[in-house]
Amino acid sequence: MSVPAAHERGSRAGSEAGFRHSLFSSILLRMVSVTALLLGLGTMTTPAFAHYPWIIVTESDAAPAFRIHFGHRFPGDGRLAPHQLDEVRIIEPDGRSRTLALDDQELHPLVPLGAGTHLLAIAQLPAFWSRTIEGGRRASREQYPDAFSCSQSVNTMKAVFGDGTGDSWRREQGHPLELLPLVNPSTLRTGDALAVRVTFHGEPWTGEVKATYAGFEQQGEESYAVSVPTDSDGVARFVPASEGHWLVRAFASEDYPDPRVCDRRSYTSTLTFFVD
Question: pTM above the 0.85 mark?
Fold first, then answer.
Protein backbone atom coordinates (compact mmCIF):
# COMPACT_ATOMS: atom_id res chain seq x y z
CA MET A 1 0.00 0.00 0.00
CA SER A 2 1.33 3.39 -1.01
CA VAL A 3 2.05 6.05 1.55
CA PRO A 4 -0.56 8.50 0.09
CA ALA A 5 -3.31 5.82 0.33
CA ALA A 6 -2.46 5.02 3.92
CA HIS A 7 -2.39 8.69 4.75
CA GLU A 8 -5.81 9.13 3.12
CA ARG A 9 -7.29 6.22 5.10
CA GLY A 10 -5.82 7.57 8.32
CA SER A 11 -7.32 10.97 7.59
CA ARG A 12 -10.74 9.45 6.94
CA ALA A 13 -10.56 7.41 10.15
CA GLY A 14 -9.53 10.49 12.10
CA SER A 15 -12.36 12.51 10.58
CA GLU A 16 -14.91 9.78 11.38
CA ALA A 17 -13.63 9.53 14.96
CA GLY A 18 -13.79 13.27 15.29
CA PHE A 19 -17.30 13.33 13.87
CA ARG A 20 -18.45 10.58 16.27
CA HIS A 21 -16.88 12.42 19.20
CA SER A 22 -18.52 15.69 18.14
CA LEU A 23 -21.91 13.98 17.68
CA PHE A 24 -21.67 12.26 21.08
CA SER A 25 -20.73 15.54 22.76
CA SER A 26 -23.62 17.31 21.08
CA ILE A 27 -26.13 14.64 22.17
CA LEU A 28 -24.73 14.61 25.71
CA LEU A 29 -24.96 18.39 25.91
CA ARG A 30 -28.57 18.31 24.75
CA MET A 31 -29.43 15.59 27.29
CA VAL A 32 -27.86 17.63 30.08
CA SER A 33 -29.71 20.76 28.93
CA VAL A 34 -33.05 18.96 28.74
CA THR A 35 -32.49 17.37 32.15
CA ALA A 36 -31.62 20.73 33.66
CA LEU A 37 -34.70 22.28 32.07
CA LEU A 38 -36.96 19.53 33.41
CA LEU A 39 -35.46 19.85 36.85
CA GLY A 40 -35.95 23.57 36.62
CA LEU A 41 -39.54 23.13 35.57
CA GLY A 42 -40.14 20.75 38.43
CA THR A 43 -38.71 23.25 40.87
CA MET A 44 -40.67 26.11 39.42
CA THR A 45 -43.98 24.30 39.35
CA THR A 46 -43.67 22.99 42.91
CA PRO A 47 -45.61 25.42 45.11
CA ALA A 48 -43.49 27.22 47.69
CA PHE A 49 -44.74 27.92 51.17
CA ALA A 50 -46.42 31.28 50.92
CA HIS A 51 -45.19 34.10 53.12
CA TYR A 52 -47.73 36.34 54.79
CA PRO A 53 -47.73 39.25 57.27
CA TRP A 54 -48.88 39.66 60.86
CA ILE A 55 -48.64 42.22 63.66
CA ILE A 56 -47.11 41.76 67.10
CA VAL A 57 -48.08 44.42 69.65
CA THR A 58 -45.95 44.71 72.78
CA GLU A 59 -47.58 46.39 75.74
CA SER A 60 -45.54 47.63 78.68
CA ASP A 61 -45.50 50.38 81.29
CA ALA A 62 -44.07 52.60 78.58
CA ALA A 63 -45.94 53.38 75.36
CA PRO A 64 -47.01 50.25 73.43
CA ALA A 65 -45.29 49.46 70.14
CA PHE A 66 -45.70 47.02 67.29
CA ARG A 67 -43.75 45.12 64.67
CA ILE A 68 -44.97 43.97 61.27
CA HIS A 69 -43.59 40.53 60.51
CA PHE A 70 -43.51 38.68 57.20
CA GLY A 71 -42.87 34.97 56.79
CA HIS A 72 -44.42 31.76 58.11
CA ARG A 73 -42.75 31.21 61.50
CA PHE A 74 -44.80 32.89 64.21
CA PRO A 75 -44.17 34.98 66.27
CA GLY A 76 -40.96 36.36 64.72
CA ASP A 77 -39.68 36.16 61.16
CA GLY A 78 -38.83 38.75 58.51
CA ARG A 79 -40.45 42.17 58.44
CA LEU A 80 -42.36 44.43 56.09
CA ALA A 81 -41.01 47.92 55.51
CA PRO A 82 -43.41 50.90 55.42
CA HIS A 83 -43.02 51.31 51.64
CA GLN A 84 -44.56 47.83 51.25
CA LEU A 85 -47.75 48.88 53.04
CA ASP A 86 -50.89 50.35 51.55
CA GLU A 87 -52.53 51.69 54.70
CA VAL A 88 -52.06 51.61 58.47
CA ARG A 89 -55.06 52.48 60.65
CA ILE A 90 -55.73 52.44 64.36
CA ILE A 91 -59.31 52.24 65.55
CA GLU A 92 -60.05 53.75 68.96
CA PRO A 93 -62.37 52.11 71.54
CA ASP A 94 -65.19 54.46 70.49
CA GLY A 95 -64.82 53.45 66.84
CA ARG A 96 -62.97 56.52 65.60
CA SER A 97 -60.28 55.69 63.02
CA ARG A 98 -57.06 57.48 62.18
CA THR A 99 -54.20 56.78 59.80
CA LEU A 100 -50.68 56.23 61.09
CA ALA A 101 -47.53 57.32 59.27
CA LEU A 102 -44.62 54.94 59.93
CA ASP A 103 -40.89 55.57 59.91
CA ASP A 104 -38.55 53.04 58.33
CA GLN A 105 -37.76 51.14 61.51
CA GLU A 106 -38.49 47.70 62.88
CA LEU A 107 -40.33 48.75 66.05
CA HIS A 108 -43.14 51.29 65.63
CA PRO A 109 -44.07 53.08 68.86
CA LEU A 110 -47.67 53.99 69.47
CA VAL A 111 -48.45 57.34 71.05
CA PRO A 112 -49.83 57.00 74.58
CA LEU A 113 -53.28 55.52 74.18
CA GLY A 114 -56.24 55.86 76.45
CA ALA A 115 -58.03 53.02 78.19
CA GLY A 116 -59.95 50.47 76.19
CA THR A 117 -59.46 48.00 73.37
CA HIS A 118 -57.71 49.24 70.23
CA LEU A 119 -57.53 47.70 66.78
CA LEU A 120 -54.63 47.99 64.35
CA ALA A 121 -55.63 47.31 60.74
CA ILE A 122 -52.96 47.16 58.03
CA ALA A 123 -53.05 46.30 54.34
CA GLN A 124 -49.98 45.25 52.37
CA LEU A 125 -49.57 46.57 48.84
CA PRO A 126 -50.64 43.83 46.38
CA ALA A 127 -47.66 42.10 44.77
CA PHE A 128 -47.13 39.83 41.76
CA TRP A 129 -44.92 36.75 41.74
CA SER A 130 -44.11 34.81 38.56
CA ARG A 131 -42.14 31.61 38.10
CA THR A 132 -39.98 31.85 34.99
CA ILE A 133 -37.15 29.94 33.34
CA GLU A 134 -34.88 32.46 35.07
CA GLY A 135 -36.41 31.78 38.50
CA GLY A 136 -38.94 33.68 40.61
CA ARG A 137 -39.64 37.27 39.60
CA ARG A 138 -41.70 39.97 41.32
CA ALA A 139 -43.65 40.76 38.17
CA SER A 140 -46.74 39.73 36.20
CA ARG A 141 -47.17 38.12 32.78
CA GLU A 142 -47.03 41.59 31.29
CA GLN A 143 -43.29 41.53 31.97
CA TYR A 144 -42.88 37.74 31.58
CA PRO A 145 -45.49 36.48 29.07
CA ASP A 146 -43.89 33.00 29.00
CA ALA A 147 -43.95 32.57 32.79
CA PHE A 148 -44.89 29.07 33.97
CA SER A 149 -47.23 30.54 36.59
CA CYS A 150 -48.21 33.89 38.06
CA SER A 151 -49.96 34.85 41.28
CA GLN A 152 -50.86 38.10 42.97
CA SER A 153 -50.97 38.28 46.77
CA VAL A 154 -53.41 40.54 48.61
CA ASN A 155 -52.59 40.45 52.34
CA THR A 156 -54.26 42.17 55.28
CA MET A 157 -53.70 41.97 59.02
CA LYS A 158 -55.26 43.02 62.29
CA ALA A 159 -54.14 43.16 65.91
CA VAL A 160 -56.44 43.63 68.92
CA PHE A 161 -54.94 44.92 72.17
CA GLY A 162 -55.90 46.91 75.26
CA ASP A 163 -57.83 46.47 78.49
CA GLY A 164 -61.11 45.13 77.19
CA THR A 165 -63.57 48.05 76.94
CA GLY A 166 -65.01 49.56 73.78
CA ASP A 167 -66.03 47.95 70.51
CA SER A 168 -63.16 48.72 68.11
CA TRP A 169 -62.46 44.99 67.83
CA ARG A 170 -65.79 44.35 66.07
CA ARG A 171 -65.41 47.08 63.42
CA GLU A 172 -65.30 45.75 59.84
CA GLN A 173 -62.48 47.16 57.73
CA GLY A 174 -63.68 46.20 54.27
CA HIS A 175 -60.80 43.79 53.65
CA PRO A 176 -61.54 41.38 50.76
CA LEU A 177 -60.82 38.44 53.10
CA GLU A 178 -61.56 39.49 56.67
CA LEU A 179 -61.41 37.90 60.10
CA LEU A 180 -64.09 39.27 62.42
CA PRO A 181 -63.92 38.11 66.05
CA LEU A 182 -67.31 37.59 67.69
CA VAL A 183 -65.89 38.11 71.19
CA ASN A 184 -63.33 40.66 72.29
CA PRO A 185 -59.93 38.95 71.94
CA SER A 186 -58.34 41.33 74.46
CA THR A 187 -60.55 39.87 77.20
CA LEU A 188 -59.59 36.24 76.58
CA ARG A 189 -58.09 34.14 79.34
CA THR A 190 -56.50 30.74 78.91
CA GLY A 191 -59.26 28.23 78.17
CA ASP A 192 -61.84 30.76 76.96
CA ALA A 193 -63.52 29.98 73.65
CA LEU A 194 -63.07 32.22 70.62
CA ALA A 195 -65.43 32.48 67.64
CA VAL A 196 -64.27 34.18 64.45
CA ARG A 197 -66.39 34.93 61.42
CA VAL A 198 -64.64 34.94 58.05
CA THR A 199 -65.97 36.88 55.08
CA PHE A 200 -64.73 36.79 51.49
CA HIS A 201 -65.89 39.75 49.40
CA GLY A 202 -68.44 40.40 52.14
CA GLU A 203 -69.96 36.91 52.09
CA PRO A 204 -69.51 34.01 54.56
CA TRP A 205 -66.41 32.04 53.63
CA THR A 206 -66.08 28.27 53.78
CA GLY A 207 -62.68 26.84 54.53
CA GLU A 208 -60.08 25.99 57.17
CA VAL A 209 -59.07 28.60 59.73
CA LYS A 210 -55.64 27.97 61.22
CA ALA A 211 -54.26 29.29 64.49
CA THR A 212 -51.03 29.04 66.45
CA TYR A 213 -49.28 30.62 69.40
CA ALA A 214 -45.81 31.82 70.35
CA GLY A 215 -43.84 28.82 71.55
CA PHE A 216 -45.66 26.20 69.46
CA GLU A 217 -43.13 23.76 68.04
CA GLN A 218 -43.74 23.62 64.31
CA GLN A 219 -43.30 20.23 62.68
CA GLY A 220 -43.15 21.83 59.25
CA GLU A 221 -43.38 25.15 57.48
CA GLU A 222 -47.17 24.99 57.36
CA SER A 223 -48.00 23.37 60.70
CA TYR A 224 -50.30 25.10 63.16
CA ALA A 225 -51.54 24.35 66.66
CA VAL A 226 -55.19 24.52 65.57
CA SER A 227 -57.04 23.94 62.30
CA VAL A 228 -60.84 24.21 62.29
CA PRO A 229 -63.44 24.51 59.51
CA THR A 230 -65.94 27.32 59.25
CA ASP A 231 -69.65 26.55 59.38
CA SER A 232 -72.29 27.69 56.90
CA ASP A 233 -72.18 31.18 58.40
CA GLY A 234 -68.42 31.40 57.95
CA VAL A 235 -67.77 31.01 61.69
CA ALA A 236 -64.87 29.02 63.15
CA ARG A 237 -64.70 28.19 66.86
CA PHE A 238 -61.77 27.02 68.95
CA VAL A 239 -60.16 27.44 72.38
CA PRO A 240 -56.81 29.30 72.60
CA ALA A 241 -55.54 27.00 75.35
CA SER A 242 -52.10 28.54 75.82
CA GLU A 243 -51.01 31.85 77.30
CA GLY A 244 -49.21 34.38 75.11
CA HIS A 245 -49.41 35.81 71.60
CA TRP A 246 -51.82 34.08 69.22
CA LEU A 247 -52.25 34.26 65.45
CA VAL A 248 -55.37 33.31 63.48
CA ARG A 249 -55.05 32.97 59.71
CA ALA A 250 -57.36 32.43 56.74
CA PHE A 251 -56.35 31.92 53.11
CA ALA A 252 -58.44 32.09 49.92
CA SER A 253 -57.77 32.38 46.21
CA GLU A 254 -59.56 32.95 42.93
CA ASP A 255 -58.79 33.36 39.23
CA TYR A 256 -57.13 36.62 38.32
CA PRO A 257 -59.59 38.82 36.34
CA ASP A 258 -57.31 39.07 33.29
CA PRO A 259 -55.38 35.86 32.42
CA ARG A 260 -53.08 37.86 30.17
CA VAL A 261 -51.79 39.61 33.28
CA CYS A 262 -51.77 36.79 35.86
CA ASP A 263 -53.28 33.38 36.72
CA ARG A 264 -54.44 33.57 40.33
CA ARG A 265 -55.08 36.11 43.06
CA SER A 266 -54.53 34.89 46.61
CA TYR A 267 -55.66 36.46 49.86
CA THR A 268 -54.32 36.03 53.38
CA SER A 269 -55.88 37.61 56.45
CA THR A 270 -54.34 37.44 59.92
CA LEU A 271 -55.54 38.40 63.38
CA THR A 272 -53.24 38.58 66.41
CA PHE A 273 -53.96 39.10 70.10
CA PHE A 274 -52.58 38.20 73.55
CA VAL A 275 -54.13 35.63 75.89
CA ASP A 276 -53.47 36.04 79.61
Answer: no
